[in-house]
Amino acid sequence: MRPEVELNDPSTPARRERSRLLRRFAWTALAGLAAFELAASARVYLAHAGPREFPQDYVSQGVWSAGAWVRPLKRHATDVAPALTAARRMLDRDPDLYGPVQRVGPSFIYPPTAALELLPLATLARGDDLTRATQGMDLVARLCALATLATALAFAWRAEADWPARAGLLIVFAAFYPTRWMLTCVQAQSLITLFLALALAAAACRRDILTGVLLGLAAGLKPHLGLLLIFGVVRRQWGVCAGMTGSLLVLAGLSAALAGYEPWRVYVTEVLPAVSPGYAYYPNQSINGVLNRWMGHPVGFEIAPRTTAVSAGSAAATLLFAVLAVWPRGAAARGDDRRAGQMRAVDLGMALLCATLASPVAWEHHYAWCVVLFAVCLTAAVDLAAPRVRRRVVALLAVSYVGLGAYIAPLTAGGGGPATLLDALPLVAALVLLGVAGYLARRLARELSGRSEPRP
């Protein structure tokens, strides 16, 4: 029996091998997450003297953020208010969507299309009282997180593993810190996460137009995702291009009809230049954040000073990741079988990860959608024919998952220099995930083109 046939036959030992690998991934990742959380909690507890406030003075941010699945936490107020205020003004046809961009703290820094997409929630506001609208956003965030988790499990459970392996994957995917922190922050990022997760699922099912529409909705909230339009052109996925272009044109047209063209002028000429220097704040896990911290810029939640070195480095990184996003990864996957679907999802997932890394601002919760990419890569890895390669790839995925999925407490207190690289572990983990996905894409392309696999 050929290896690929045996791997897909549930009556053979291959199914037991898949289950064993999936269990190993789940429990290894959970052990790594627990180790990081225990270390961070010990630091919090030992560093605090005097009266304590529960839970943030007893355990780490990563531990208490798990409560966001059950109830909202009041320790950290959401910064969705500026976006909801802009959406409310658009509902009232007020063109003044943007106030002065605050150097410290939250501001509405998204394009006018973002206000349009939040318009349904703005209807819950009562004048300047955004309480009901914020509660609505909290509910939407929870639904988006659950749908994203379900999408990841739908990919992972197709590996025909046993129920203990599936239960382990459910626990480890729910423990992904970017998702938990996204729920705690109550932001529009939850919508972007859902759109990207569903886009990966649509790509796997070869629904190009739907994939494009979902990517367009995400790009309407985060413009750097417009890079995916170039991806669609290079891949000659005209359905993706049509869906993405059409959705963006509809969003832009409706936003102009409601608020006019003045918000677009302000966004392009004032907002984008104001926020382009990025942030040195440690949750900014992008090349821009690494460079700003290296330069010793203020590490709080404030826009960093503009410097030539950071601007040049960020531009070079953006160009590099843009090239990697569209770089050919083998023969196009045209079939409708599971391996072809995995190839399409991995290919798009790499482009999405490159777009995230290319952004000057990539907060930890901006990687929440990656739980779906992990699921796709995991199912592709356990179906590889070579046993040693399967084990090594799954081990690398577990290491990457721990680095990206755990709360990594800041190890440096600013000051600049190479020591600040210690606070870039999630970024390194994202790069490892990108490398593993690239390797799997090459293996899948060889398999689909009928060529022999490379030697392990």
Topology, please?
Layout (H helix, E strand, L loop, with lengths): L2 H5 L5 H35 L13 H4 L16 H11 L20 H6 L1 H4 L8 H26 L6 H12 L2 H9 L3 H16 L3 H14 L5 H8 L3 H22 L2 H14 L11 H8 L13 H19 L11 H21 L11 H13 L4 H19 L19 H25 L7
Task: Describe the protein in words.
The chain has one domain. It starts with a helix and ends in a 7-residue tail after the last helix. The chain has 456 residues and is mainly α. It is globular and about 65 Å long. It has 20 helices and no strands.
What's the quick description here?
With 456 residues, the protein is mostly helical. It contains 20 helices and no strands.
The biggest sheet, with number of strands, parallel, antiparallel or mixed sense and barrel status, is: none
Secondary-structure element series:
HHHHHHHHHHHHHHHHHHHH
Note poorly predicted spans. 1-11, 451-456
Number of strands: 0
Rg, please? 22 Å
- Averaged pLDDT, please? 87
What's the shape?
globular
Share of helix, binned: 55-70%
Strand content: under 5%
Number of helices: 20
Properties at a glance:
456 residues; globular
